[in-house]
Design brief:
Length: about 200
């Protein structure tokens, strides 16, 4: 008995869980929020034979068409890596108000907790949090933005981690463009903060 399975299918013999972790950054001082990172982890459990027969499982190729074309809008790429969501558009604290690459963000606005603010930031981008949950109530890290010519007041950005489960399609909104990138690709978008993200993001 042989069968072929997509890395994202949820057949009876395969448990393919798609997890996306998100870091949301909340800025304090002015209580601004700035940053989300979504990544995808695909976990496939091995197929086990039952009775007197054994299933000969043939996995689908790891290299997809999106890999070959470097389609960074697709989640069907880098299947053995985590992917992070970046948005292109207006961002809090961007110099001269010009569009830049950034994580989903939100300025703190008297929410009950910082986590509530982080949830609101993610919801504004995905539109629905029914397939997400936040890991803990405390931030995973923070970044201090110093005062300078284009930053009139210093503030902090706090990062929260959340996970989106059981989906590989999103209607990304409130941005001019978006990409799903690996950690190494992500660092190319933030050369000045590369060392910070390299330490905070595991893989």
């Amino acid at each position: 008995m042989r069968f072929r399975s997509s890395p994202f299918d949820g057949g009876s013999n395969i448990d393919a869980n798609i997890l996306m972790s998100s870091w949301t950054c909340l800025n304090l001082g002015k209580f601004e929020t700035d940053s989300f990172v979504l990544h995808v982890i695909v976990r496939v459990l091995p197929c086990m034979g039952k009775g007197d027969y054994q299933i000969d499982y043939v996995p689908a190729p790891r290299i997809t068409e999106a890999d070959k074309t470097n389609d960074r809008k697709s989640l069907q790429r880098a299947l053995d890596r985590r992917l992070y969501l970046l948005l292109y558009g207006n961002s809090n604290g961007a110099p001269n108000g010009e569009p830049v690459w950034h994580f989903p963000e939100k300025v703190y606005d008297s929410e009950e907790t910082l986590r509530k603010c982080a949830e609101s930031a993610l919801e504004s981008v995905l539109g629905d949090l029914s397939h997400t949950y936040f890991v803990g109530n405390a931030p995973m890290g923070h970044m201090v933005i110093e005062q300078k010519e284009d930053v009139p007041e210093p503030y902090k950005r706090f990062f929260f981690k959340s996970q989106v489960i059981d989906t590989n399609e999103f209607n990304i909104r409130k941005c001019e463009d978006f990409v799903w990138v690996t950690k190494d690709e992500l660092l190319e978008y933030f050369p000045e903060q590369a060392e910070f993200f390299k330490k905070m993001i595991i893989s």
